[in-house]
Amino acid sequence: MGYVKNVRCSKIRIGYDVNMAQILSLTDDAKIRIKEILSETEKDKVGVRIAVSEGGCAGYSYEMSYVDSADPKDELIEDEDVKIFIDPAAIMFLLGSTMDFKSDKFKSGFVFMNPNETERCGCGESFSV
């Protein structure tokens, strides 16, 4: 463990020096779908925010919402003009994850491949860490 300067709030904190791009990576399908849904919304949306909340049969669930304006507390991941804002409380749950978009005959949606998960419910909507 080392000292890392948090530039946003100009305080020193103890932690690992983590490259913010390692929090979450996006597949090409996820980037394409995010661009599509943002193009279909009101023009003032600047990206998508990902959070993790308590709930579901396995303990936690992913939440996604549109972002009207950037919150300086959120971590920003920008990949090919796609902006993903990560709730600071979700970082520890998402670290090293990949977000994909899957579509088949019965359903379509975003899927998280999360190396931190220890369990996932049968329907795939919630997880444990």
Short description:
The protein has one domain: HesB-like domain (Hypothetical Protein Aq_1857, Chain: A, Sandwich).
List keywords for this structure.
globular; 129 residues; single chain; mainly beta; 2 helices; 3-stranded mixed sheet; Hypothetical Protein Aq_1857, Chain: A
Q: Provide the CATH superfamily.
A: HesB-like domain
At CATH level 3, the topology is: Hypothetical Protein Aq_1857, Chain: A
Name the CATH architecture: Sandwich
Q: What overall form do the CA principal axes indicate?
A: globular
In spatial order, strands of the major sheet run 5-4-7-6
Proportion of residues in β-strands: 35-45%
**What helical percentage do the residues reach?**
10-25%
Q: Please give the CATH class.
A: Mainly Beta
Class based on secondary structure composition and strand pairing:
mainly beta
Series of secondary-structure elements, N-terminal to C-terminal: EEEHEEEEHEEEE
Query: What is the number of independent domains?
Result: 1
Number of helices: 2
Number of strands: 11
Low-confidence stretches: 1-21
Largest sheet features: 4 strands, mixed
Report how far the terminal alpha carbons are from each other: 22 Å
Q: What is the average per-residue confidence, as pLDDT, rounded to a whole number?
A: 78
Radius of gyration: 15 Å
Structure description:
There is one protein chain. The chain has helices at residues 28-39, 91-94; strands at residues 2-6, 11-15, 24-26, 47-54, 60-67, 75-79, 82-86, 97-103, 108-113, 119-120, 127-128. The chain has a single domain (19-128), classed as HesB-like domain (Hypothetical Protein Aq_1857, Chain: A, Sandwich), CATH 2.60.300. With 129 residues, the protein is mostly beta strands.
